[in-house]
Design brief:
By secondary structure, the chain is an alpha+beta fold. Among the domains are: 126 residues, Immunoglobulin-like; 223 residues, SGNH hydrolase (Rossmann fold), CATH 3.40.50. The chain is built from 12 helices and 26 strands. Strands 2, 3, 4, 5, 6, 7, 8, 9, 15 and 16 form a 10-stranded mixed β-sheet that branches. A 7-stranded antiparallel β-sheet has the order 1-12-13-11-10-14-23, with no helix packed on it. It has a 7-stranded mixed β-sheet with strand order 20-21-22-19-24-25-26, covered by helices on one side. Strand 10 and strand 11 form a beta hairpin. Helix 6 crosses helix 12 and helix 8 runs parallel beside helix 10. It is globular. The N terminus is likely disordered.
Length: 552
């Protein structure tokens, strides 16, 4: 039998082969290894595997299913492109609400409309020189209202991509109905807002204080950090995969971070771009009717069907100051005693931003038996808890994790909503309320999609283990706009996130409080924090889900 011998050259080849295999294995598992380390130092790098539209924003890779959903959602909210703007921008070529008009189109019976019909108006936009616009992309909102009846309903605006638009309204009350069409932003202004989020997703920045003994340092933090020579602390959440980074302090470790707070805003508009955001000129300005701007709605005809719920009709409307849902439970204005009886034996957990904290504060003030328990935490930041021992009611509030812009948040109190929901037992006496949108307006929309995906996963698991748990989701709402508010929290940014949120939770056993329509349809001015009458209607809407039989 012939013997086989290995030469030194053979051993060298085998050793080299094994080394290459080991290197391939380590590299292929690097992302997994990194995700298992919470507070490590990383050298700034940009990997094409993680890039999502921004050269310095990196995210954890998505599963194929989540990645497909992200692409579909991004396609569904894509905004019409605007012809390239000259530099510097010429205001005369942009949409002018003073020159633009709307016209009521004839009803199905000429000039008559009945309850259950739809009213349509045609909107034609013009620039500041009175020339008709030839492209779409303007951000318009519309509502139908009757101040005497305290009635209002949101309209649906359709962009025909040629400078003309339609606004369609469902007719849900008898009598006078006034049409209101508003230009929130010109298409040219929307292009600027879109560019800011693409090029400057870090224009709102955050800071953290690091401390060890008598030594302390403060560094900048964000979900998107620009590459520098300074190492970076990676605070990606282990359970959700949510990314967050801080520049590492020079003399302290990443583990010494003690808080999170808002750092400031960098406004980098190009020359004359601020002219696109002028109050009273082209920022949330009404468009006048060409001819009548109101109609008289006649009673419903015999045999005529009621307004059906679909994507083309509103979620509800106001009548005599009370929000009425279309296709949902009856909503009644409840007094303190009725609210207490509805919540008796319930635990209500509220998670989100300050628009959710408004709901906590409303209940805390409205119910005499509900007393806030002092957790020695900041009132704006929380966590907060109120108890009614006699009626066995507990209501809690906790703000969502970064990006969160208010107060100084101790890092030990920063919690991701998905993790909080994962830790709940749930059941028929548990109500979970979620509202998260306003603090994500300048972040990449992909970051918001991923946050909602993690929350949705937690909600699905909660409903699997405790199907009688009630889950309520609050959508975004309109707000008052100045130049500063527009750059940081424009209604256009909110609308995009509102669409994402509604798409994300569609088909799940959750209930939406459509804050967008509830603020659009109401006669009160838009406000980031809606005024008490709107909040009262929102709370009553929530209670109609908690106690549907008592709300009718």
């Amino acid at each position: 039998m012939k013997a086989t011998y290995c030469t030194r050259r053979d051993f060298g080849a085998i050793f080299l082969f094994l080394m290459v295999c080991a290197l391939i294995f380590v590299l292929s598992h690097m992302d997994i290894l990194q995700s298992k380390i919470y507070s490590i130092i990383i050298t700034p790098r940009v990997s094409s595997h993680h890039i999502v539209n921004r050269s310095f924003c990196t995210f954890e890779p998505l599963s194929p299913e989540d990645a497909l959903e992200e692409r579909l959602i991004l396609d569904s909210i894509a905004w019409p492109e605007t012809p390239l703007l000259p530099s510097p921008v010429s205001l005369e070529q942009t949409t002018d609400p003073a020159h633009s008009t709307f016209t009521i189109l004839p009803g199905r019976k000429g000039g008559q409309w009945h309850v259950g019909d739809q009213l349509e108006v045609m909107i034609q936009t013009f620039d500041f020189q009175g020339r008709p616009k030839k492209s779409g992309g303007d951000f318009l909102i519309a509502r139908l209202h009757n101040r005497k009846l305290e009635a209002g309903v949101a309209g649906k605006v359709v962009d025909h991509l040629n400078g003309s638009y339609s606004a369609v309204f469902s007719l849900v009350w008898e009598g006078y109905a006034q049409i209101e069409v508003t230009l929130v932003h010109s298409s040219e202004a929307v292009s600027v807002l879109d560019r800011l989020n693409r090029e400057q997703p870090d224009r709102i920045y955050f800071k953290s204080l690091f401390r060890s003994g008598s030594l302390s340092e403060t560094t900048i933090c964000n979900v998107c950090l620009r590459p520098t020579q300074q190492p970076v602390c990676n605070y990606t959440d282990l359970r959700t995969g949510e990314s967050w980074f801080c520049y590492k302090p020079k003399n302290l470790s990443c583990d010494t971070r003690i808080n999170h707070f808002s750092g400031g805003v960098i406004q980098n508009l190009k020359t004359k771009e601020e002219k696109l955001f002028q109050r009273g000129v082209n920022l949330k300005v009404s468009i006048q009717g060409r001819g009548p701007s109101n109609v008289v709605v006649l009673p419903k005809e015999d045999g005529q069907l009621n307004v059906k719920t679909s994507s083309s009709v509103p979620s509800g409307y106001y009548y005599q100051g009370v929000w009425q849902t279309l296709g949902g439970p009856t909503v009644s204005q409840l007094n303190r005693s009725a609210i207490t009886q509805c919540l008796k034996g319930k635990v209500v957990h509220m998670y989100g931003d300050s628009t959710i904290r408004q709901w906590f504060e409303f209940l805390d003030a409205a119910l005499p038996g509900l007393k806030e328990f002092d957790l020695h935490t900041p009132l704006r930041v929380g966590p907060l808890m109120s108890l009614d021992h006699e009626n066995n009611i507990m209501v809690t509030y906790r703000c969502h994790a970064p990006p969160i812009r208010f107060g100084h948040n101790p890092t030990r109190q920063l919690r991701y909503i998905a993790n909080e929901i994962d830790d709940l037992i749930g059941g028929p006496n548990t109500v979970v309320v979620v509202g998260i949108w306003a603090h994500f307006c300048t972040n990449p929309i992909e970051n918001y999609i991923r946050r909602l995906q993690s929350i949705r996963r937690a909600v699905v698991k909660l409903l699997d283990r405790a199907p009688e748990t009630l889950v309520i989701i609050r959508t975004a709402n309109l707000k008052a706009l100045t130049l500063f508010q527009t750059i940081t929290n424009s209604d256009w940014y909110s609308l995009q996130r509102d669409k994402v949120l509604k798409a994300m939770f569609k088909g799940l056993k959750v209930h939406l409080i459509d804050a967008w329509e509830m603020t659009l349809a109401h006669h009160l001015p838009h406000d980031l924090h809606p005024q008490p009458p709107i909040i009262k209607n929102m709370i009553d809407h929530i209670l109609s889900y908690i106690c549907p039989h008592k709300g009718g």
